[in-house]
Amino acid sequence: MRERMTFFASLLVCLLVTALIAGCGGPEVATEEPETEEALRVAEVFPGSISDEGFNQVGYEGLMMIRDQLGAEVAFSENTPVANFVQVYRDFADQGYDVIIGHGFEYGDVALEVAPDYPDIKFIVDSNPVVEAENVAGITGESWEAAYLCGALAGLMTESGKIGGIAGFDFPILVAQMEAYKLGAQSVLPDVEVTIVYVGSFEDVSLAKEAALAQASAGVDVVFHIADAAGIGVIQACEEAGIWAIGWGLDQNHLAPDTVLTSMLFNGAKLLLQDVQKVVDGTWTGEVRLYGLETGVVNIADFHGLVPDDIASQVEQTKSDIIAGDIEVPYITESSD
User: Is the pLDDT of residue 6 over 50?
Assistant: First the structure.
């Protein structure tokens, strides 16, 4: 009997210790073991959930491609609080990862702060077209080109002459897309009214939904979002209000098949794979690298039969004109509202 009691007491202590360790954790961190001892080690830091149906999920798919196609050991931190950004970076660096990817514009300053202390590590910040240092590269698709197409489509599809845009934050890369969306709409409908709202969250579905419902109440009949997981709320609102939505990141038509006209596609997976391949090849450099419509890194999704043929053809012609250089979409980082 004494032996059994001793066993259960030991088991209880182990369980309590395990619970305490788990409770002290911040962001969720996961690691995939390498295929070989010499495998490249790549870590990625995500501000949100890797299953958000948008930006973070796209980045996670890229990390899995790096693992599967390059044989890398990979690790990631998701739902990473802003207060933990620098520490998570340093933790991965101290663990000896060869490449650390910050998935989002906001990681630019973090990479520049941490990188000088780890000169042998390569830091990649995606969706950031400005950050660069000897061992820091800012890479992004020229998403503003695709956003321009979304604006042209919205301008051609609106019946009220009022369209909306909802973004998570007023980061320069997001402002640039919303301003391009506005320019695209104005190119086909000069007098169009464009209402842009920055809700201050990538996660708050209810907040984004309220913002979209408010726009619908004001007469807006097409809404484009760049809001990650919160964007689901925008789509829900558009479906309830009976107006059009334009998604972001992945083809989001499946979320509301009769509501989502198209989605601005950001092939972040391809973007990340291409850049880490440069590390493998020995050609990687710390500089800004941009990928436009012609590369396939950014695009717009299928119209799923919701857009009349003449409008679809007009949008496709606009895309061709951008690729050919006949239309130049500017990178505008300050809102014109």
Answer: no
